[in-house]
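Is pyridoxal-5'-phosphate placement plausible here? Inputs below.
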Amino acid sequence: MAEQPVNLDPFWMPYTANRSFKKRPRLIKSATRYHYQTLDGREVLDSFSGLWTTGLGHCHPHIVQAVQQQVATLDYATGFQVSHEGPFRLAEKLIEKAPEGFSQVFFTNSGSEAADTAMKIALGYHRSKGDSTRLKFIGRQRGYHGTNFGGMSIGGIPANRTMFGNSLLPNVFHLQATHQPEFSAFSKGQPSKGAELADELEMMVQFHRPENIAAVMIEPVAGSGGVVIPPIGYLEKIREICTRHDILLIFDEVITAFGRIGDYFGAQRFNVIPDIITVAKGLTNGVIPMGGVLVKSEIYDAFMQGPESMVEFFHGYTYSGHPVAAAAGLASMEVYERDAPFQTARQLEGDFENSLHGVADAKNVTDVRNFGLMGAIDIAPRPDAPGARGFEVHEKCFAAGLMVRHSADTLQFSPFLTSTPEHFEETFDTVKKIINELD
Ligand SMILES: Cc1ncc(COP(=O)(O)O)c(C=O)c1O
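Reply from A.M.:
I modeled the complex. C-alpha coordinates:
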Protein backbone atom coordinates (compact mmCIF):
# COMPACT_ATOMS: atom_id res chain seq x y z
CA MET A 1 0.00 0.00 0.00
CA ALA A 2 1.09 3.58 -0.65
CA GLU A 3 2.50 5.69 2.16
CA GLN A 4 -0.09 5.81 4.93
CA PRO A 5 -0.14 9.10 6.83
CA VAL A 6 -3.40 8.40 8.69
CA ASN A 7 -3.18 7.30 12.32
CA LEU A 8 -5.60 4.38 12.33
CA ASP A 9 -5.60 3.84 16.06
CA PRO A 10 -8.05 6.35 17.63
CA PHE A 11 -11.11 5.58 15.49
CA TRP A 12 -13.12 2.62 16.81
CA MET A 13 -14.70 1.45 13.57
CA PRO A 14 -18.36 0.35 13.42
CA TYR A 15 -19.22 -3.25 12.49
CA THR A 16 -15.59 -3.86 11.56
CA ALA A 17 -12.90 -6.33 12.52
CA ASN A 18 -10.81 -3.42 13.84
CA ARG A 19 -7.56 -5.30 14.48
CA SER A 20 -7.52 -6.93 11.10
CA PHE A 21 -8.49 -3.71 9.29
CA LYS A 22 -5.77 -1.74 11.02
CA LYS A 23 -3.19 -4.30 9.86
CA ARG A 24 -4.50 -4.31 6.28
CA PRO A 25 -6.51 -1.09 5.80
CA ARG A 26 -8.89 -0.54 2.93
CA LEU A 27 -9.19 3.23 2.72
CA ILE A 28 -11.34 5.08 0.22
CA LYS A 29 -10.45 8.60 -0.84
CA SER A 30 -13.16 9.60 -3.30
CA ALA A 31 -16.04 8.31 -5.36
CA THR A 32 -17.43 8.92 -8.82
CA ARG A 33 -20.77 7.44 -9.83
CA TYR A 34 -20.14 3.65 -9.87
CA HIS A 35 -16.63 3.54 -8.40
CA TYR A 36 -14.60 4.31 -5.33
CA GLN A 37 -11.04 5.53 -5.65
CA THR A 38 -8.77 4.17 -2.94
CA LEU A 39 -6.10 6.06 -1.05
CA ASP A 40 -3.52 4.03 -2.94
CA GLY A 41 -4.96 5.17 -6.28
CA ARG A 42 -7.05 2.20 -7.44
CA GLU A 43 -10.56 2.14 -8.95
CA VAL A 44 -13.01 -0.13 -7.11
CA LEU A 45 -16.43 -0.97 -8.56
CA ASP A 46 -19.05 -0.67 -5.81
CA SER A 47 -21.40 -3.69 -5.95
CA PHE A 48 -23.30 -2.55 -2.88
CA SER A 49 -24.36 1.06 -3.68
CA GLY A 50 -22.58 2.30 -0.57
CA LEU A 51 -24.37 0.36 2.17
CA TRP A 52 -27.70 -0.16 0.37
CA THR A 53 -27.78 3.65 0.40
CA THR A 54 -26.64 5.19 -2.84
CA GLY A 55 -28.82 3.74 -5.59
CA LEU A 56 -28.40 6.80 -7.82
CA GLY A 57 -24.62 6.51 -7.80
CA HIS A 58 -21.98 8.37 -5.83
CA CYS A 59 -21.63 12.17 -5.83
CA HIS A 60 -24.78 12.65 -7.87
CA PRO A 61 -24.41 16.23 -9.22
CA HIS A 62 -28.00 17.29 -8.53
CA ILE A 63 -27.81 16.21 -4.89
CA VAL A 64 -24.30 17.60 -4.39
CA GLN A 65 -25.44 20.98 -5.68
CA ALA A 66 -28.55 21.04 -3.49
CA VAL A 67 -26.49 20.22 -0.40
CA GLN A 68 -23.87 22.86 -1.21
CA GLN A 69 -26.52 25.53 -1.69
CA GLN A 70 -28.42 24.59 1.45
CA VAL A 71 -25.43 24.48 3.76
CA ALA A 72 -24.48 27.98 2.67
CA THR A 73 -28.04 29.30 3.12
CA LEU A 74 -29.38 27.70 6.30
CA ASP A 75 -26.94 25.36 8.00
CA TYR A 76 -29.09 24.52 10.99
CA ALA A 77 -32.37 25.52 12.55
CA THR A 78 -34.02 23.91 15.52
CA GLY A 79 -36.97 21.73 14.72
CA PHE A 80 -38.52 22.09 18.18
CA GLN A 81 -41.35 24.66 18.22
CA VAL A 82 -39.74 26.46 15.23
CA SER A 83 -38.91 25.01 11.86
CA HIS A 84 -38.07 25.77 8.24
CA GLU A 85 -39.47 24.74 4.88
CA GLY A 86 -37.30 21.71 4.13
CA PRO A 87 -38.91 18.93 6.21
CA PHE A 88 -42.44 20.10 5.31
CA ARG A 89 -41.66 19.98 1.60
CA LEU A 90 -39.93 16.63 1.89
CA ALA A 91 -42.74 15.13 3.98
CA GLU A 92 -45.28 16.31 1.40
CA LYS A 93 -43.31 14.65 -1.41
CA LEU A 94 -42.95 11.39 0.54
CA ILE A 95 -46.66 11.27 1.29
CA GLU A 96 -47.43 11.93 -2.38
CA LYS A 97 -45.42 8.80 -3.28
CA ALA A 98 -46.50 6.64 -0.33
CA PRO A 99 -49.34 4.11 -0.48
CA GLU A 100 -52.81 5.52 0.07
CA GLY A 101 -53.73 6.39 3.65
CA PHE A 102 -50.31 7.63 4.77
CA SER A 103 -50.42 11.23 5.86
CA GLN A 104 -47.49 12.28 8.09
CA VAL A 105 -43.73 11.76 8.38
CA PHE A 106 -41.61 11.98 11.54
CA PHE A 107 -37.95 12.60 10.68
CA THR A 108 -35.00 10.92 12.37
CA ASN A 109 -31.30 10.76 11.53
CA SER A 110 -30.93 7.07 10.80
CA GLY A 111 -32.72 3.80 10.26
CA SER A 112 -32.04 2.77 13.85
CA GLU A 113 -33.75 5.88 15.16
CA ALA A 114 -36.61 5.33 12.72
CA ALA A 115 -37.12 1.80 14.11
CA ASP A 116 -37.17 2.97 17.73
CA THR A 117 -39.41 5.91 16.84
CA ALA A 118 -41.86 3.57 15.09
CA MET A 119 -42.01 1.37 18.18
CA LYS A 120 -42.70 4.38 20.41
CA ILE A 121 -45.39 5.60 17.99
CA ALA A 122 -47.05 2.16 18.14
CA LEU A 123 -47.11 2.20 21.95
CA GLY A 124 -48.34 5.81 22.06
CA TYR A 125 -51.05 5.11 19.51
CA HIS A 126 -52.58 2.24 21.45
CA ARG A 127 -52.28 4.10 24.74
CA SER A 128 -53.98 7.19 23.35
CA LYS A 129 -56.87 4.95 22.27
CA GLY A 130 -57.12 3.51 25.77
CA ASP A 131 -55.52 0.21 24.75
CA SER A 132 -52.75 0.47 27.29
CA THR A 133 -52.18 -3.28 27.62
CA ARG A 134 -50.79 -3.46 24.08
CA LEU A 135 -47.14 -3.47 25.06
CA LYS A 136 -45.68 -6.50 23.27
CA PHE A 137 -43.85 -6.53 19.95
CA ILE A 138 -43.26 -9.27 17.46
CA GLY A 139 -40.20 -9.22 15.20
CA ARG A 140 -38.56 -11.95 13.17
CA GLN A 141 -35.39 -13.97 13.30
CA ARG A 142 -32.74 -12.63 10.91
CA GLY A 143 -34.52 -9.25 10.94
CA TYR A 144 -32.37 -6.14 11.23
CA HIS A 145 -33.76 -2.90 12.58
CA GLY A 146 -30.60 -1.11 13.56
CA THR A 147 -28.61 -0.99 16.74
CA ASN A 148 -30.59 1.07 19.24
CA PHE A 149 -32.34 -0.77 22.06
CA GLY A 150 -35.74 -1.08 20.42
CA GLY A 151 -34.49 -2.10 17.01
CA MET A 152 -31.86 -4.38 18.49
CA SER A 153 -34.45 -6.14 20.65
CA ILE A 154 -36.96 -6.62 17.86
CA GLY A 155 -34.17 -7.55 15.44
CA GLY A 156 -33.23 -11.19 15.12
CA ILE A 157 -29.55 -11.42 14.24
CA PRO A 158 -27.93 -13.33 17.11
CA ALA A 159 -24.50 -11.63 16.87
CA ASN A 160 -26.12 -8.22 17.41
CA ARG A 161 -27.91 -9.38 20.55
CA THR A 162 -25.60 -11.76 22.36
CA MET A 163 -23.41 -9.15 24.06
CA PHE A 164 -26.43 -7.34 25.49
CA GLY A 165 -28.25 -10.41 26.79
CA ASN A 166 -30.66 -9.57 29.55
CA SER A 167 -30.62 -5.84 28.82
CA LEU A 168 -32.65 -6.29 25.65
CA LEU A 169 -36.24 -5.05 25.90
CA PRO A 170 -38.62 -7.53 27.49
CA ASN A 171 -41.93 -8.29 25.76
CA VAL A 172 -40.40 -8.82 22.34
CA PHE A 173 -40.94 -12.14 20.54
CA HIS A 174 -39.72 -13.45 17.21
CA LEU A 175 -41.24 -15.28 14.28
CA GLN A 176 -39.00 -17.68 12.45
CA ALA A 177 -37.18 -16.44 9.38
CA THR A 178 -38.57 -17.36 5.98
CA HIS A 179 -35.33 -18.78 4.57
CA GLN A 180 -35.93 -22.48 3.92
CA PRO A 181 -33.02 -23.70 1.79
CA GLU A 182 -34.28 -27.28 1.98
CA PHE A 183 -37.18 -26.19 -0.27
CA SER A 184 -36.07 -22.97 -1.88
CA ALA A 185 -32.28 -23.01 -2.42
CA PHE A 186 -31.25 -21.26 -5.65
CA SER A 187 -34.71 -19.72 -6.03
CA LYS A 188 -35.19 -16.78 -8.33
CA GLY A 189 -37.57 -14.15 -6.99
CA GLN A 190 -40.10 -15.09 -4.33
CA PRO A 191 -39.98 -18.76 -3.24
CA SER A 192 -43.20 -20.55 -4.07
CA LYS A 193 -43.29 -22.48 -0.80
CA GLY A 194 -43.43 -21.03 2.70
CA ALA A 195 -46.53 -18.80 3.05
CA GLU A 196 -47.65 -21.12 5.87
CA LEU A 197 -44.77 -19.79 8.01
CA ALA A 198 -47.01 -16.79 8.67
CA ASP A 199 -49.38 -19.10 10.60
CA GLU A 200 -46.89 -18.93 13.44
CA LEU A 201 -48.00 -15.32 13.95
CA GLU A 202 -51.57 -16.41 14.60
CA MET A 203 -50.33 -18.95 17.18
CA MET A 204 -48.17 -16.33 18.87
CA VAL A 205 -51.03 -13.85 18.96
CA GLN A 206 -53.34 -16.41 20.52
CA PHE A 207 -50.69 -17.37 23.05
CA HIS A 208 -49.95 -13.80 24.16
CA ARG A 209 -53.53 -12.61 23.50
CA PRO A 210 -54.20 -9.97 20.83
CA GLU A 211 -55.05 -7.27 23.38
CA ASN A 212 -51.45 -7.38 24.62
CA ILE A 213 -49.70 -6.90 21.28
CA ALA A 214 -48.80 -3.46 19.95
CA ALA A 215 -47.12 -4.19 16.63
CA VAL A 216 -45.36 -6.59 14.33
CA MET A 217 -42.22 -5.17 12.72
CA ILE A 218 -40.60 -6.85 9.73
CA GLU A 219 -38.64 -5.95 6.63
CA PRO A 220 -40.59 -6.87 3.48
CA VAL A 221 -37.31 -8.40 2.24
CA ALA A 222 -34.83 -8.86 5.09
CA GLY A 223 -31.57 -7.27 3.97
CA SER A 224 -28.72 -7.37 6.43
CA GLY A 225 -29.88 -10.73 7.77
CA GLY A 226 -28.90 -12.15 4.38
CA VAL A 227 -31.49 -11.14 1.76
CA VAL A 228 -34.32 -13.29 3.03
CA ILE A 229 -37.18 -13.09 0.55
CA PRO A 230 -40.83 -13.52 1.55
CA PRO A 231 -42.45 -16.60 0.02
CA ILE A 232 -45.44 -15.91 -2.22
CA GLY A 233 -48.47 -15.15 -0.03
CA TYR A 234 -46.53 -14.74 3.23
CA LEU A 235 -46.77 -10.96 3.59
CA GLU A 236 -50.47 -11.04 2.69
CA LYS A 237 -51.10 -13.49 5.53
CA ILE A 238 -49.13 -11.39 8.02
CA ARG A 239 -51.18 -8.36 6.98
CA GLU A 240 -54.46 -10.21 7.38
CA ILE A 241 -53.62 -11.50 10.86
CA CYS A 242 -52.53 -8.05 12.06
CA THR A 243 -55.68 -6.43 10.69
CA ARG A 244 -57.93 -9.03 12.29
CA HIS A 245 -56.38 -8.41 15.73
CA ASP A 246 -55.89 -4.61 15.52
CA ILE A 247 -52.14 -5.07 15.68
CA LEU A 248 -50.11 -2.43 13.85
CA LEU A 249 -47.95 -3.72 11.03
CA ILE A 250 -44.65 -1.86 10.66
CA PHE A 251 -42.64 -2.38 7.50
CA ASP A 252 -39.00 -1.47 7.97
CA GLU A 253 -38.23 -0.21 4.48
CA VAL A 254 -34.84 1.28 5.24
CA ILE A 255 -33.48 -0.90 2.41
CA THR A 256 -36.52 -1.74 0.30
CA ALA A 257 -37.78 1.83 -0.25
CA PHE A 258 -36.59 4.10 -3.07
CA GLY A 259 -36.23 1.68 -5.91
CA ARG A 260 -34.25 -1.19 -4.43
CA ILE A 261 -37.12 -3.49 -5.34
CA GLY A 262 -38.45 -1.37 -8.17
CA ASP A 263 -40.91 1.00 -6.52
CA TYR A 264 -40.93 3.92 -4.09
CA PHE A 265 -41.86 1.48 -1.33
CA GLY A 266 -41.62 -2.30 -1.11
CA ALA A 267 -45.23 -2.22 0.11
CA GLN A 268 -46.23 -1.12 -3.40
CA ARG A 269 -44.20 -3.84 -5.09
CA PHE A 270 -45.83 -6.53 -2.94
CA ASN A 271 -49.18 -4.75 -2.82
CA VAL A 272 -49.28 -5.31 0.94
CA ILE A 273 -49.80 -2.07 2.83
CA PRO A 274 -48.61 -1.74 6.43
CA ASP A 275 -49.68 0.90 8.98
CA ILE A 276 -46.23 2.39 9.55
CA ILE A 277 -43.21 2.51 7.23
CA THR A 278 -39.67 3.34 8.28
CA VAL A 279 -37.15 4.70 5.77
CA ALA A 280 -33.55 6.00 5.70
CA LYS A 281 -30.62 5.27 3.32
CA GLY A 282 -32.08 5.99 -0.15
CA LEU A 283 -34.11 8.87 1.31
CA THR A 284 -31.05 11.08 0.71
CA ASN A 285 -29.16 8.66 -1.56
CA GLY A 286 -26.90 8.22 1.50
CA VAL A 287 -25.47 11.71 1.08
CA ILE A 288 -26.61 13.13 4.44
CA PRO A 289 -27.84 10.94 7.32
CA MET A 290 -31.62 10.98 7.57
CA GLY A 291 -34.43 8.59 8.41
CA GLY A 292 -38.17 8.89 8.66
CA VAL A 293 -41.32 7.20 9.90
CA LEU A 294 -44.42 7.41 7.72
CA VAL A 295 -47.75 6.91 9.45
CA LYS A 296 -51.37 6.71 8.48
CA SER A 297 -53.72 9.52 9.41
CA GLU A 298 -55.53 7.58 12.14
CA ILE A 299 -52.22 7.10 13.93
CA TYR A 300 -51.27 10.78 13.78
CA ASP A 301 -54.81 11.81 14.72
CA ALA A 302 -54.76 9.59 17.80
CA PHE A 303 -51.90 11.69 19.17
CA MET A 304 -53.58 15.03 18.45
CA GLN A 305 -55.47 15.31 21.70
CA GLY A 306 -55.33 17.52 24.79
CA PRO A 307 -54.61 21.25 24.98
CA GLU A 308 -53.29 22.65 21.70
CA SER A 309 -50.32 24.30 23.40
CA MET A 310 -49.07 20.92 24.69
CA VAL A 311 -46.44 18.81 22.92
CA GLU A 312 -48.36 15.74 21.68
CA PHE A 313 -45.45 13.31 21.34
CA PHE A 314 -42.48 13.71 23.68
CA HIS A 315 -39.95 12.51 21.19
CA GLY A 316 -37.55 14.06 18.68
CA TYR A 317 -33.90 14.57 17.81
CA THR A 318 -31.81 17.74 17.66
CA TYR A 319 -31.37 17.02 13.96
CA SER A 320 -34.92 15.83 13.09
CA GLY A 321 -35.64 17.45 9.71
CA HIS A 322 -32.15 18.98 9.47
CA PRO A 323 -32.05 21.58 6.66
CA VAL A 324 -29.15 19.99 4.78
CA ALA A 325 -30.58 16.47 5.11
CA ALA A 326 -33.97 17.72 3.93
CA ALA A 327 -32.32 19.38 0.93
CA ALA A 328 -30.53 16.13 0.08
CA GLY A 329 -33.85 14.28 0.46
CA LEU A 330 -35.72 16.68 -1.79
CA ALA A 331 -32.99 16.59 -4.42
CA SER A 332 -33.03 12.77 -4.34
CA MET A 333 -36.80 12.75 -4.75
CA GLU A 334 -36.43 15.11 -7.72
CA VAL A 335 -34.02 12.69 -9.40
CA TYR A 336 -36.26 9.70 -8.60
CA GLU A 337 -39.12 11.53 -10.28
CA ARG A 338 -37.23 13.09 -13.17
CA ASP A 339 -35.01 10.20 -14.29
CA ALA A 340 -37.30 7.23 -13.48
CA PRO A 341 -34.41 5.10 -12.12
CA PHE A 342 -36.86 2.62 -10.55
CA GLN A 343 -38.03 1.68 -14.03
CA THR A 344 -34.43 1.19 -15.10
CA ALA A 345 -33.87 -0.93 -12.00
CA ARG A 346 -36.82 -3.16 -12.88
CA GLN A 347 -35.53 -3.62 -16.40
CA LEU A 348 -32.16 -4.67 -14.98
CA GLU A 349 -33.60 -7.35 -12.71
CA GLY A 350 -33.30 -10.12 -15.30
CA ASP A 351 -29.65 -9.37 -16.12
CA PHE A 352 -28.84 -9.12 -12.42
CA GLU A 353 -30.53 -12.44 -11.69
CA ASN A 354 -28.74 -14.22 -14.55
CA SER A 355 -25.30 -12.93 -13.63
CA LEU A 356 -25.80 -13.59 -9.90
CA HIS A 357 -27.01 -17.15 -10.46
CA GLY A 358 -23.98 -17.73 -12.68
CA VAL A 359 -22.08 -18.15 -9.38
CA ALA A 360 -24.36 -21.04 -8.28
CA ASP A 361 -21.88 -23.72 -9.41
CA ALA A 362 -18.84 -22.14 -7.73
CA LYS A 363 -17.01 -24.08 -5.03
CA ASN A 364 -18.85 -24.44 -1.69
CA VAL A 365 -21.80 -22.26 -2.76
CA THR A 366 -24.94 -23.55 -1.00
CA ASP A 367 -27.54 -20.98 -2.06
CA VAL A 368 -28.09 -18.01 -4.35
CA ARG A 369 -31.23 -15.87 -4.14
CA ASN A 370 -32.49 -12.54 -5.40
CA PHE A 371 -35.39 -10.16 -5.49
CA GLY A 372 -35.44 -6.75 -7.17
CA LEU A 373 -31.86 -5.55 -7.12
CA MET A 374 -31.06 -7.42 -3.90
CA GLY A 375 -29.05 -10.62 -4.05
CA ALA A 376 -27.16 -13.04 -1.82
CA ILE A 377 -24.73 -15.91 -2.17
CA ASP A 378 -24.24 -18.32 0.74
CA ILE A 379 -20.89 -20.05 0.99
CA ALA A 380 -20.53 -23.09 3.27
CA PRO A 381 -18.60 -22.01 6.37
CA ARG A 382 -15.23 -23.60 7.10
CA PRO A 383 -15.97 -25.99 9.95
CA ASP A 384 -13.31 -24.46 12.18
CA ALA A 385 -13.76 -20.82 11.11
CA PRO A 386 -17.30 -19.62 10.38
CA GLY A 387 -17.27 -16.30 8.56
CA ALA A 388 -13.69 -16.67 7.34
CA ARG A 389 -14.56 -17.51 3.74
CA GLY A 390 -16.95 -14.53 3.49
CA PHE A 391 -14.32 -12.20 4.89
CA GLU A 392 -11.68 -13.53 2.50
CA VAL A 393 -13.96 -12.94 -0.49
CA HIS A 394 -14.49 -9.37 0.69
CA GLU A 395 -10.75 -8.72 1.16
CA LYS A 396 -9.65 -10.39 -2.07
CA CYS A 397 -12.38 -8.69 -4.12
CA PHE A 398 -11.34 -5.31 -2.75
CA ALA A 399 -7.76 -6.02 -3.78
CA ALA A 400 -9.06 -7.02 -7.22
CA GLY A 401 -11.05 -3.76 -7.61
CA LEU A 402 -14.51 -4.79 -6.39
CA MET A 403 -16.36 -3.80 -3.24
CA VAL A 404 -18.37 -6.77 -1.94
CA ARG A 405 -20.35 -6.79 1.28
CA HIS A 406 -20.31 -9.90 3.40
CA SER A 407 -22.06 -10.86 6.60
CA ALA A 408 -20.43 -14.01 7.96
CA ASP A 409 -20.35 -16.37 4.95
CA THR A 410 -23.19 -14.68 3.07
CA LEU A 411 -22.23 -12.25 0.32
CA GLN A 412 -24.79 -9.53 -0.30
CA PHE A 413 -25.33 -7.47 -3.43
CA SER A 414 -27.19 -4.23 -3.97
CA PRO A 415 -26.07 -2.72 -7.27
CA PHE A 416 -26.83 0.78 -8.46
CA LEU A 417 -30.35 1.32 -9.80
CA THR A 418 -28.80 2.53 -13.04
CA SER A 419 -26.10 -0.14 -13.37
CA THR A 420 -25.32 -1.72 -16.72
CA PRO A 421 -25.32 -5.46 -17.45
CA GLU A 422 -21.52 -5.13 -17.86
CA HIS A 423 -21.26 -4.13 -14.19
CA PHE A 424 -23.04 -7.35 -13.23
CA GLU A 425 -20.74 -9.44 -15.42
CA GLU A 426 -17.65 -7.79 -13.95
CA THR A 427 -18.98 -8.24 -10.41
CA PHE A 428 -19.96 -11.89 -10.63
CA ASP A 429 -17.03 -13.01 -12.80
CA THR A 430 -14.69 -11.62 -10.13
CA VAL A 431 -16.71 -13.07 -7.26
CA LYS A 432 -16.87 -16.51 -8.86
CA LYS A 433 -13.15 -16.60 -9.61
CA ILE A 434 -12.29 -15.62 -6.05
CA ILE A 435 -14.72 -18.08 -4.44
CA ASN A 436 -13.21 -20.85 -6.57
CA GLU A 437 -9.70 -19.94 -5.37
CA LEU A 438 -10.60 -20.31 -1.68
CA ASP A 439 -9.83 -23.50 0.20
C1 LIG B 1 -33.86 -2.65 7.49
C2 LIG B 1 -32.95 -1.77 8.28
N1 LIG B 1 -33.42 -1.10 9.34
C3 LIG B 1 -32.65 -0.29 10.06
C4 LIG B 1 -31.32 -0.11 9.75
C5 LIG B 1 -30.47 0.77 10.56
O1 LIG B 1 -30.15 1.93 9.87
P1 LIG B 1 -28.97 2.87 10.36
O2 LIG B 1 -27.70 2.11 10.18
O3 LIG B 1 -29.11 4.08 9.49
O4 LIG B 1 -29.22 3.19 11.79
C6 LIG B 1 -30.78 -0.77 8.65
C7 LIG B 1 -29.38 -0.61 8.27
O5 LIG B 1 -28.82 -1.35 7.48
C8 LIG B 1 -31.61 -1.64 7.90
O6 LIG B 1 -31.15 -2.32 6.86
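Short version: Residues 387 and 408 are 4 Å apart (CA to CA).
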